[in-house]
Write a structure and sequence with these properties.
Elements: H1 12-28, E1 36-39, E2 46-48, H2 68-71, H3 79-94, E3 104-106, H4 108-113, E4 121-125, H5 129-139, E5 145-148, H6 152-159, E6 167-171, H7 180-194, E7 199-205, H8 209-220, E8 227-233, E9 245-251, H9 257-272, E10 279-286
Parallel strand pairs: 1-4, 1-6, 4-5, 6-7
Antiparallel strand pairs: 2-3, 7-9, 8-9, 8-10
């Protein structure tokens, strides 16, 4: 795998994905009983944004200024976004940054670790050996956190159902393989067979629309429980941007999650727009029955 997320850390895709994950954790914690957080493609857990300008051989334009950089000092954010920014700021300060702009950005493992209660656990999977070693170093030792150098789709079969009988699964692959969508569909099928009530969040990019529509059709064919889609486009449909938007499929979204997510997506479209035609929307792939 050639993907290195630190080149993209803190971009608009991270913002929507991580803000939603933070809110999903909070929703699950409305109940006293613990849950397992399973991250199938965890990355290294924390990123130094100053390295975003350092490509493999050439300098790169960092992506975080058009992402988390725009939210950093924004006023009047809805709670869903304000809570996310507060965690980012706290992590940045704890890592020693005292400047006025972000430097240290937490990936999903560190974000969720900051929210876990004593009764909650997390399992983090990362196949890439260097990234997994960095992940272990960033997460430290904790009986409530296991880091595995394994295929995240295998982990779905191996780790569900958890002893808590409750789980939040984040599937966030790099989409380098042509068969990634098919792997996701198989993983979802296996996960729901083992734990029908699992909350499963799947991040995907807007690349070729036909591939995304086919992905949605494959998911519908699984006879899913209620499933929502949160999408953010930072530019219109005919933009030349390499990635003009992304979305998060949420299987078994918590009660009233739409009421928080929908206005936040509209807010994000206004803040993170890069070209005309930016939109944010929350819609149902499989409506509630």
């Amino acid at each position: 795998m050639n993907y290195r997320h630190h080149f993209h850390a803190g971009n608009f895709a991270d913002v929507i994905k991580h803000a939603l994950v933070v809110r999903l954790v909070a929703a699950l914690q409305r109940k006293e009983k613990g849950f397992l957080y399973l991250d199938t493609h965890a990355g290294r857990g924390s990123y130094d944004l100053t390295t975003a300008e350092q490509g493999d051989s050439l300098a790169r334009t960092p992506e975080w200024p058009a992402g988390v950089g725009r939210l950093w000092s924004a006023a009047g954010l809805p709670d869903l976004l304000a809570d996310y920014v507060a965690i980012i700021r706290r992590h940045d300060q704890q890592q020693g940054n005292l400047t006025g702009e972000p430097r240290f950005y937490p990936g999903s493992p560190v974000l969720v670790a900051a929210l876990l209660r004593p009764q909650d656990r997390m399992a983090l999977c990362e196949r890439h050996s260097d990234e997994c070693a960095a992940l272990r170093a960033n997460m430290g030792l904790s009986p409530r956190c296991v880091v595995q150098a394994m295929d995240g789709y295998v982990a779905i079969r191996a780790m569900l159902p958890p002893v808590e009988k409750r789980a939040l699964v984040l599937i966030d692959p790099p989409y380098e393989a042509e068969h990634e969508f098919a792997d996701i569909v198989r993983g979802v099928k296996e996960g729901l067979a083992r734990l029908p009530g699992a909350v499963i969040a799947i991040w995907y990019p807007f690349t070729k629309r036909a591939r995304v529509d086919a992905f949605f059709n494959q998911l519908r064919a699984l006879d899913l429980p209620p499933t929502a889609v949160a999408e953010l486009a930072v530019a219109g449909e005919f933009s030349a941007l390499k990635m003009r938007g992304c979305g998060v499929v949420i299987i078994n979204p918590p009660w009233q999650f739409e009421a928080e997510a929908a206005p936040a997506l509209t807010n994000l479209a206004n803040i993170l727009a890069q070209e005309p035609g930016a939109t944010g929307r929350y819609w149902w792939l499989v409506p509630e029955r």
